[in-house]
Amino acid sequence: MTVTDTGIVTVSASGLTLHRGGTAVLDDVSLRLEEGITGLLGPNGAGKTSLLRVLATAVPADRGAFTALGHDPGTAPGRLALRRTLGYLPQNPGFHPDFTAFAFVDYVAILKELTDRAARHREVRRVLEEVDLADVRGKRIKRLSGGMRQRVALAAALVGDPRLLVLDEPTAGLDPEQRMRFRDLITRAGQGRTVLLSTHQTEDVAMLCHRVIVLAHGRVRFEGTPAELTARAAGRVWSSPERDPGARAGWRTATGAFRNVGDPPEGADLLEPTLEDGYLLTLDDNGAEATAR
Ligand SMILES: Nc1ncnc2c1ncn2[C@@H]1O[C@H](COP(=O)(O)OP(=O)(O)OP(=O)(O)O)[C@@H](O)[C@H]1O
């Protein structure tokens, strides 16, 4: 067990490599997770889903290894032990639309080996309550809103009170109100657990995460705290009336002025950096494609 400045390391991966279609979608990925919520940021195709699938033991890596919660998923007993304490919310949860919320979560609970019917049903009711869906548990999934469906998927991941939660873009496609609500649930779910949350929303990371990992082209480009990622943009964000042609990226803000990131010219009107600025510069500094502006 390793103890760092911020906490106890619960997941430790080294040299994870995964090939798909002749290319390395994960290329020598080493990382560590601690109890609490870690955000996984990266552009489309960076390898986030692939990494989550490996850590959720859905696919084995071609090379490298990891341990999670003291289990070694490289062995059959270790894999089984980890799966018993793992909750995974995949990008496409694969609902059967005619199932009710209760029936879907109950089905997942059966897969998770909760064989005693009464105890299982109690657990299903508990997790549906935890995600504020007790009132609609008898409704068919096809009749639920997108936000509610995401909460059904979170409830399924929470069955059995797992110690490790792997959440693949759970806030994607949610309206701002539902996103805030979902963030609340993730904060609650993160208490006393290790959570790895992939997202395209830098605000998710700023609001929820105590650590952040940036992945691009299958490689880890940053691993640290949100404050450290933000600090990467210190002195590298400035305002100008027109887009600065020397900027790595620049965009018009609500005030009409441009926000530029990169290497500012002499005497530039420097701005307080955000986590998004630090993220964009991290991608750009590594030659990865920054989010289109
Ligand atoms: N089975 C596969 N065959 C071929 N290529 C694949 C396969 N699975 C993934 N890839 C490729 O691997 C790369 C990483 O995909 P992955 O879904 O892990 O990225 P991501 O960061 O989750 O992307 P997004 O943010 O768009 O969900 C992509 O270029 C993808 O096209």
TrEMBL record:
PROSITE patterns found in the cross-reference section: ABC_TRANSPORTER_1, ABC_TRANSPORTER_2
Coiled-coil ranges (or none): none
Record keywords: ATP-binding, Nucleotide-binding, Transport
Keyword Nucleotide-binding: yes
Signal sequence region: none
ATP-binding in keyword set: yes
CDD domains: ABC_drug_resistance_like
Protein origin, superkingdom: Bacteria
UniProt protein name: ABC transporter ATP-binding protein
PANTHER family to which the protein is assigned, alphabetical: ABC TRANSPORTER, ATP-BINDING PROTEIN
Ranges for domain ABC transporter: 11-242
GO terms, molecular function: ATP binding
